[in-house]
Write a structure and sequence with these properties.
It contains 5 helices and 7 strands. It is of the alpha+beta class and about 210 residues long. Strands 1, 2, 3, 4, 5, 6 and 7 form a 7-stranded mixed beta sheet that branches.
């Protein structure tokens, strides 16, 4: 009798602490800046904005560039970055996709292992609306997004702040259909022009300024 009670007790423990011993453990979503990341398919504008932040945190130049217009697609829009008005004269020509690649490539370069460390946060909830009442499936724009971009160089750090606005379009020229950023506007918060993303681009592109 005692032997039977022992078997029943152990069975209850097994059921309590291991409901299904053969179940697969859920994989945790990777954090921004982790060694293992998962980019979302660019099938929605929200996914593109997520990938944009993720690529920055993980210093992935190719994934960063994939969030922008693909010039090889037949329906590609013209990419445009509108700098903070205070620095308009320092951007005499249009900022191109090549400029975007060169800027980000230089930003993430460092002699120190694992540095710089980057983190982009939007302090304003992202809201995407159709640019026109009937364009919600083809082109959208974001609300004004207050952001902070933290750049940790190891021996020093900087925090850039501003207000950004993006426009994205839905490319249907070739499968898979994808969304891309084609317009990016940057503005200072409370006249802090030297803390904007524009200032960082200007400095990286030409440190002599």
């Amino acid at each position: 009798m005692k032997h039977i009670r022992k078997i029943v007790f152990l069975s209850i423990l097994t059921f309590t602490y291991c409901t299904n011993p053969f179940s697969v453990r859920d994989v945790e979503e990777p954090g921004f800046g982790s060694d293992w990341v998962r980019y979302a398919p660019a099938t929605s504008p929200d996914s593109v904005m997520y990938n944009f932040r993720l690529a920055i945190a993980n210093k992935n130049v190719e994934e960063y560039m994939r969030t922008f217009v693909d010039p090889l697609k037949a329906d590609a829009h013209q990419y445009r970055f509108v700098p903070d008005p205070y620095y308009t004269n320092d951007f005499p020509t249009a900022w191109t996709l090549d400029d975007e690649r060169n800027f980000f490539s230089q930003l993430v370069q460092s002699d120190k292992q694992d540095y710089p460390k980057l983190r982009l946060d939007f302090l304003t909830p992202l809201v995407l609306t159709g640019i026109t009442p009937i364009s919600v499936d083809d082109s959208v724009e974001s609300n004004n997004l207050e952001y902070t971009l933290q750049v940790d160089y190891g021996d020093s750090s900087e925090v850039y702040t501003g207000i950004a606005r993006f426009k994205l379009y839905h490319s249907k020229s070739a499968p898979p259909e994808t969304w891309h950023i084609y317009y990016w506007q940057d503005n200072a918060v409370e006249q802090n022009h030297d803390k904007t993303w524009t200032y960082l681009k200007r400095f990286i592109f030409n440190p002599s300024f």
